[in-house]
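Saturday, quiet lab. Running sequence design on the structure tokens for the scaffold JK sent over.
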């Protein structure tokens, strides 16, 4: 809500820093809650939680369109949305799992353990690649694929929609093929999406962004689920925080790196490293500890 009150660049940057810090804390807490729910659930469910996150993004875009059509000011729009979701968040928090008093969460700040490095690497690579669709899809379609402004605008929509669909499907596929094989298969799908996008044809590139979203959809939620579940004797929160931090690093570095490479070469060339990162996800998926879930009954460490 306070973002709408910023009256200068310095104040806006300061508020956004606080906003980003708070969002990071909420993401870690929400994913930790998701893992705890999953631990008491008979199958994989983290993908569905992240699908609702993607759905929230689409709803937010829709609310923005409605606010624009009603000629609401940015301040009014932000105040209404902020107050509404603050209320929803406070009420929803009443149903969250409380902290287990018998669980030692360990030191407040710590480097990820050696067992978590693979998960962190997967998170970094996945969210680095996500920057291709999130931040550069419209620009690529308009400049490299020479698409119309309308088609270019559909790039992000296609990417976001398939991300949501893929996350809803992820839980079922993980229960079917297992988490490690799931990450390998979806990384291959994401690489295929990048390759199709690089053909730089308006329709084919639009399809490529859709395939990319479908491939990336479940990688981060499954990596978080594995990181939080693989060691039942360790607290969930530090593992989730470590993987989330690595993912955010990729999310922050990726779009900037793509822009820098594009400035000296071309945007098509700047997308090529995403293919290599997809291969790295496959490599790292082979070295992380996993949990194999029985269909509806028990869990055994693999």
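Result came back. Writing it out in full:
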């Amino acid at each position: 809500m306070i973002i709408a009150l910023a009256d200068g660049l310095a104040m806006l940057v300061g508020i956004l820093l606080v906003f980003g810090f708070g969002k990071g804390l909420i993401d870690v807490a929400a994913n930790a809650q998701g893992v705890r729910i999953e631990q008491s659930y008979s199958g994989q469910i983290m993908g569905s939680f992240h699908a609702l996150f993607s759905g929230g993004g689409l709803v937010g875009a829709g609310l923005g369109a409605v606010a624009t059509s009603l000629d609401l000011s940015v301040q009014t729009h932000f105040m209404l949305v902020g107050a509404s979701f603050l209320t929803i968040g406070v009420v929803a928090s009443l149903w969250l799992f409380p902290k287990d008093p018998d669980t030692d969460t360990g030191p407040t700040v710590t480097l990820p353990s050696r067992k978590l490095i693979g998960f962190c690497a997967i998170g970094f690579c996945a969210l680095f690649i996500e920057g291709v669709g999130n931040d550069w899809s419209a620009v690529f379609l308009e400049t490299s694929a020479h698409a119309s402004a309308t088609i270019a605008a559909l790039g992000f929509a296609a990417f976001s929609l398939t991300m949501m669909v893929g996350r809803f499907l992820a839980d079922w596929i993980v229960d079917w093929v297992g988490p490690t094989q799931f990450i390998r298969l979806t990384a291959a799908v994401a690489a295929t999406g990048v390759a199709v996008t690089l053909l730089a044809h308006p329709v084919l590139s639009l399809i490529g962004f859709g395939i990319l979203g479908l491939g990336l959809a479940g990688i981060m939620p499954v990596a978080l689920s594995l990181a939080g579940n693989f060691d039942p004797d360790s607290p969930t929160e530090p593992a989730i925080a470590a993987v989330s931090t690595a993912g955010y690093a990729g999310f922050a570095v990726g779009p900037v790196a793509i822009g820098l490479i594009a400035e000296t070469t071309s945007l098509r060339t700047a997308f090529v490293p995403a293919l290599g990162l997809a291969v790295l996800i496959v490599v790292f998926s082979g070295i992380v500890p996993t949990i194999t879930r029985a269909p509806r009954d028990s869990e055994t460490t693999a």
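Notes for JK: The first strand starts at residue 291 and ends at 293. The two ends are 46 Å apart (CA to CA). Ask whether to fix the surface positions before the next round.
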